[in-house]
Amino acid sequence: MAFSWRILQRPQDEEAEVQVRAAGRADAAAVAGMATALSRAEGGFPSRFTEATYLRDGFGPEPAFKALVAERDGDLVGYAVYYTGYDTDTATRGVYLADLFVHERVRRRGVGRALVGAVAEACRASGGRWMFWSVLRHNKVGRRFYKALAPELKDVLVCAAFGRTFDRLADMGKGGG
Asked: What is the pTM of this model?
C-alpha cells in the first residue's frame, strides 16, 4: 500500500511530495525514535516502544498493530500506528489510531492529514467503517488538528487500566470471580 500527496514545505515554498506507505522492518529504528519523541512531546514517561518491540509486536503471524510512515525525499517525517476493533452497536469493523506523529519541521504542511487519511483508507479497504483516536486534554494543538477532522465526543469517557490496576482486573477473572 502506498499513497502520495503533494504538501507545502513552507507556505512560501514550492510543493513537495510525501509518500505514505506501510512501515516495514527496516523502519524499526526510525519509528521507535519517533515514538520516543511523541512521548516526550506529550510530557509523559519515555516510550518503552523500542526497535525490538516494534519488530516483535508489529510483525509475525499475529501482529498487534499496523504502522504507516510518511516519507519526503527519502526522509521519514512521520508515522501512524493503529489496530483493528469491532463495534457491536453498528456491527462494523474499524481502527483505533494509537499514535500519530509528525516531525516538527514539517508540521502544518499536510503530513498528519495524509497519514490519517491513509489509515482511514486502509481501514475502509479492509471493510472498516469507523476510526477512533484519543488526544490528551492539555494538547491544544493536537485537539485543534483532530477537531478539524472529526468532532470530539462529548458523552464518552475513556477509562484505562494499567499496571497494578490491570493486574487486579485480570485477577478478578481467575475462577470466574
From this structure: 0.85
Tell me how crowded residue 23 is: count the other CB atoms within 10 A of its CB.
22
Per residue in 83-93, pLDDT (tens digit) is: 999 999 999 99
Query: For residue 79, what are the β-bridge partners?
Result: 69, 101
Domains of the chain with bracketed CATH: 2-176 (3.40.630.30)
CA distances from 122 to 12, 70, 127, 133, 144 (A): 32, 14, 9, 15, 24
The amino acid occupying position 34 is: M
- How many other C-beta atoms are found inside a 10 Å radius of the C-beta of residue 77? 25
CA distances from 84 to 51, 59, 137 (A): 22, 15, 24
pLDDT (tens digit, 9 = 90+) per residue, 48-71? Answer: 899 999 999 999 999 999 999 999
